[in-house]
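Task 17 of the worksheet. Students: predict the tertiary structure of the chain below and write it out as structure tokens. Keep your answer in the requested format; marks are given for formatting as well as content.
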Amino acid sequence: MPQPLEPIIIEPHESDRLADPAKGEFLLYDKDFPPEEDPRFAVVTEGEPLCKPHFGLSETAAWVFGRKPDWLRRMTKGKPWRNQTADGYTPMQTTPLLLQGKPLIIRQVKGRGLGPQRRFTLADIERLAWALYETGSIDGAELQRASAILVAVARQYGFQDDHEQEQA
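Model answer:
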């Protein structure tokens, strides 16, 4: 029989960092974490090498956004559209997911058979959440929850923001 547990009170965390994508400011940066040295996670697309921790699309969809992987897969592919021309429609195209008007770069690593797999660092997920917020795919409350989850996970991996580093 399981033992009854005492409730836990989690105090909000004070931080000097504020996210403001319009100014290019975020809570988390890849430079705050150690680089990934496992060759299985070498990036095969454009972008910087991964850092630890990093997560797959399914994990990110479930624990950050509380959604199914298909939802996040559709969101990262971009919005589908077609142009109507005089002789019909053009083939279906997608507009990439944008953050502040610039395409969001999603790094990929060599997959296990079916091609490359998307991998997200905590900093990538924060930018993904902001891009989804900008498109209206998530609301402000979901963005706040995602940010809180990401900062909590970052602390588990030893992240200290500027305020905590000054106190140490």
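Marker's comment: Residues 163-168 have pLDDT under 50 and may be disordered. The chain has one domain: 27-160.
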